Amino acid sequence: MQLLDIFLHLDKYLSTVIDQYGAWVYAILFIIIFLETGVVIIPFLPGDSLLFAAGALAAINPTLNPIVLFVLLCTAAILGDTLNYWIGHAIGPRAFTGSIPFLKHEYLVRTQKFYDKHGGKTIFLARFVPIIRTFAPFVAGVGQMNYSHFITYNVFPRLFLWQYSLCQEQL
User: Fold this and answer.
1) How far are the Cα atoms of 92, 93, 104, 147 from residue 141, in angstroms, in the given order?
2) pLDDT digits (tens, 9 = 90+) for 139-151
3) Residue 56's Cα: distance from chain center in Å?
């Protein structure tokens, strides 16, 4: 039970985990961010609070390199979103075959039209909204959003943040 509590509230225990596991904390953080963004049924993992805690600790703890942490966690989020997209892409159309009463084919068509028109904005803006950021890639996959369009808007916000953080370091 205590291990589950630590996993679900890693942001509170992060300093202790760093002291006990050292550089292995990179792998732990990668897995949590990857799972939070990549598996649509577990958006309850500590995302934002964990990122803020990791960033703050990277500023004061020599075990964590802020640049390595940033690149690693962006990679985890991009890969997680990509997995989530492909899960939605594979499962989505099959779920709308009529076997599940509340999933009507009409809803799939409406989702596809929405993502054709607003997909890029949705993926970009979802980065900044907890819970929604987990479901948006899945729904983009369900709606059969073009993958190259999806990946562009999945990566762009992170590249923007990377450029912004580099500019801040130079000031």
Assistant:
1) 7, 9, 17, 8
2) 888 888 889 888 8
3) 20
Write out pLDDT tens, residues 46-85: 666 777 777 777 777 777 888 888 888 889 989 999 999 9
Read off the pLDDT band of 1 (50, 70, 90). very low
CA 156 from centroid of its chain's CA atoms: 14
> CA-CA distance, 146 to 125, in Å (whole number)?
18
Give long-range contacts, CB 8 A cutoff, 24+ apart: 11-14: 11/46, 11/49, 11/50, 11/52, 11/53, 12/53, 14/50, 14/53, 14/54, 14/57
Q: Which of 66, 72, 43 is CA-nearest to residue 54?
A: 66
| CA–CA separation, 166 and 159 (whole Å) | 11
Q: Judge whether 80 and 33 are in contact, CB under 8 Å.
A: yes
